[in-house]
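Chapter review: from sequence to fold.
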Amino acid sequence: MRTTRRRRLAFVELALALLLLAGLATRAVAAVTALLMVTYIAAIASVWARGMSIDCGCSSSGGTLTGGAERGYVVGIVRDLAFLGAAAFLITRPRTRYALGRWVLETKER
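The token string follows.
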């Protein structure tokens, strides 16, 4: 069951990334992405605060820890904060010269 959820989430993340790259519905997609980043940051902080040691394999090589090493939760939180900042930027400035949404959705005045 969990593997199926992870796969669905991976497809959602991929779809969001493709929409952002294409520049379609940028503001809405960036808002959903920002919500995901806030959720990820809260989840990582929760795990870290409880002293748990997990590895979902999402953005690391996975495997077991050796020699009493600790997980690098700070790196994950900082990475997600950077993505959150990028999403916030796209929410405030969703249109660029190269965005498909500009060509598809914008009406031209004549």
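Two observations follow directly from the output. The radius of gyration is 18 Å. The CA atoms of residues 45 and 77 lie 8 Å apart.
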